[in-house]
Task: structure prediction
Amino acid sequence: MDSQVLQEPGDRSHWCVVAYWEEKTRVGRLYSVQEPSLDIFYDLPQGNGFCLGQLNSDNKSQLVQKVRSKIGYGIQLTKEVDGVWVYNRSSYPIFIKSATLDNPDSRTLLVHKVFPGFSIKAFDYEKAYTLQRPNDHEFTQQPWTGFTVQISFVKGWGQCYTRQFISSCPCWLEVIFNNQ
Result:
């Protein structure tokens, strides 16, 4: 496995940690990532990475089960010189919210849809250092840092969707970048 359970909050050998959520419940532990790329998938017969299908989930919701089954090959997170890229290897869209994807003067952050087979620069370290905390209602409901990216599988959220908050999405990731 390319990722390891985060041993200590002060561990600086990683470039990010990943949390998997089903609606408002975190499933499994935080995973610390040291390798330059990480595959996050539901179930593969072969391969290295973060296998969501191996996590024990008590969620019996039909929607959660349906979305979990659609994650398939999932995503690949890759740390490049210019930032972190997310490649959608799934057969369904993913949705990403990142402070570094939007205009820094915007009052709210947009959720960006990434179609299967496409990638997006989801995080820019240089831009993140210059950002201030946005005045967004969602951020008063949930913790936020400029070094966090939220990724939902299959279902979107935000102003253009019936789900207003990512915690209403069936299956999603929180990626927290090391700011050192």
User: Anything to note?
Assistant: The helical segments are 62-71, 125-130, 137-141.
